[in-house]
Amino acid sequence: MAKFLSRACLPALLLAAVSITGHAATPAGHAAEVDPRIGTGGDGHTFPGATLPFGMIQLSPDTAMPDFKHAYKWAAGYQYGDSSLLGFSHTHFSGSGHSDLGDVLVMPIAGEVRLEQGDAAKPGSGYRSRFSHDSEKVEAGYYAVTLSDYGVRAELTAGRRVGWHRYTFPAGKPAHLLLDLRPSIYDYPGKVLWSNLRVQEDGTVTGCRQTRGWAPGRELCFAMRFSQPLQSRHLLNRETDVPYKGFKGPGYQADDKDAQQGRALVGVFDFGALKQPLGVKVSISSVSEANAIANLDSDGKGWDFDARRAEARSAWDKVLAVIDIDAPKDQRTSFYTSLYHAMLSPTLSMDVNGDYRGPDNAVHRAEGFEFHSTWSLWDVYRAQQPLMVLLQPQRSVDFVRSLIAAREASPFGILPVWAYQGLETWCMIGYHAVPVIADAYVKGIRGFDADAAMKAMVASATYAPYGGLGEYMKLGYVPIDKEPEGASKTLEYAYDDWSIARMAKAMGRDDIAATFDKRAGNWRNAYDPKTGFMRARKTDGAFREPFNPDTAGYGSDYTEGNAWQYSWYVPQDVAGLITAMGGDDVFVKKLDSVFEAKVDPSHFANVEDITGLIGWYAHGNEPSHHLAYLYDYAGAPWQTQKRLKQIMDSQYAPRPDGLAGNDDLGQMSAWYIFTALGFYPVAPGSDEYAIGRPFLARAALHLADGKTFTITAAPLDDAHPYIGNVTLNGKPLDRVYLRHRDILAGGELHFTMQAEPNRTWGKSADARPAAMSAYKP
Prior knowledge:
InterPro entries: 6-hairpin_glycosidase_sf, GH-type_carb-bd, GH92_a_mannosidase_put, GH92_N, Glyco_hydro_92, PNGase. It is an enzyme of class 3 (hydrolase). By secondary structure, the chain is of the alpha+beta class. Among the domains are: 13-319, Beta-galactosidase, Chain A, domain 5 (Distorted Sandwich), CATH 2.70.98.10; 357-466, Glutathione S-transferase Yfyf (Class Pi), Chain A, domain 2 (Up-down Bundle), CATH 1.20.1050. Helix 5 (384-391) crosses helix 6 (393-408), helix 8 runs antiparallel to helix 10 and helix 10 (486-507) runs antiparallel to helix 11 (510-520). The two termini are 34 Å apart.
């Protein structure tokens, strides 16, 4: 997903000191195989800090929070190539193509305090500090680093709603903690609309700030406590212009001991020379300071940092234990880090009392479920959410209920598009909450109100003011002279419509199914048989001219892609697309031309997210993610196997720049997990997975009902890249797809691999995955 401007996005202090030192036990379990540094370099946009599965807190270091014109590479606040840190903030996106958050930034300081960030190229010019990667320790649920300029050892871990800090200061130097409520990821002048900072009677530090960011008017509150008594404190409003002499460098006098309000607040908390580490615990709430305090009281008891670190490790061990694999070390690191990244979002966005903020910016209360937000729906419906349906079905219930609850609180009566902390951003296209819900229902997830879900889905698909939907319902396509990116919108709407039809059919709602099955065929209105590409039409029915299939970028017919990438976006009816293109042979040759084209990456210099190129295939962006699996639908699964080997070898690696593009809240990682296992959900909303080829000698999926589905492959090496034959529970499997129920039943899927392609397996029409034109219920 690209950045905002390149596409259609709308805009206790006195508590007695206690020891918090100690040593965590040697970890066991798959969490030890996770490397959160993967994706922190290049365009992966992941963060290395501490968090829990789907947790509310993402406590992580920030190396930069640049202005909005330069923010793209720092969408998660951290770039591996940087050499200094601003501090540690409590909220981050994982792998997004847009940026925001970076809330409640704190920096431990030994000695002299400076109040501004300073210039990274001029050490000592501000409060930022240099660091070395050699001093970092990065684990699932734990991050540590030494701040070179201060000699402070910083350690972080996380609970569900609380961030835990431990800072060890050099002996004899005065210890301070700076709290800066000014900076934000994707910063620009005037972003902070208002903030307040106060010290409560019991010594708890609280505050809120409201920002005019990606989600306008977002408010976040916090509560903070320290393990050591304070010697002094300074709450500063940096908007005033009277010189303040308490700190070196430019400063301003607006020092109220107990409270401050304004748009540029800084707090400095002084502890003197400490003989013990300083513990800090911080909770957040999108509702109120009172709720943040309640979250801290509930989830932040005591000061045992090592116990909290062990709990975080245990939480990760538990969720990662859902799959056991046999693989070499590097592959295990890639696999379990991918599984880790796939289980970061959507995030818990609800306080301990059930309160959450909805898209109407009002406070609501969840009853019987946990409200989650942070929905990059254009990305995660493809593989990340289907992976959760398979591996975390109970969480899927909460996710679907969260989507329904958000719709019920929406001023427009529709499901989320790209939401976080309950608020809507209107970023990207489609109504892709629909296939998330449909995929869950079709695969047997219950525990939510299906009728309310269907009502929400239909409402989203018929809300005429959204993205040209009114014209789409009249004309059967989105006209490019009325709405940008018309080809992409037509195609994505048609797929979403198909997923509504599938759920309606499963519910016995044949009337709704008939309506949306018809709309699902609208992809045909974008197909130009003369050129063989998907194109945008004008209101009069003519295709827009001039046409160049290579053209990409905002203002083109397509969203973050071009005709070479988007002409395959008919996951609901690949058989129909094959027929339209002229049959199996023509389809396969044209698909080959996508992967084998000679393309200069500079061609996409104006579209940041089109990365990971293999010809025109762009693995760094989601519209390409299903392409390699399409050979299955044309009777050439051996070609799918060949292309997947290319992709896996070139687009993933266990190093900081090991992701070819934005992880997009786990979608890139979920693609890796499915593909490593040997199958992929080309069309979420169906019961089928297209078979690719396995990349693991053995994988055991431990399912929610206690059954195990085991996948084995032999001989598995570079000399045997192709499938010879497949058996399911000892019986030959002649089809090139698995059903969800095949997996849930438990058993064993075995692949016999060979050196040369098997050109007969999966070739017959009845062996291929289903499509709308030949749907198998």
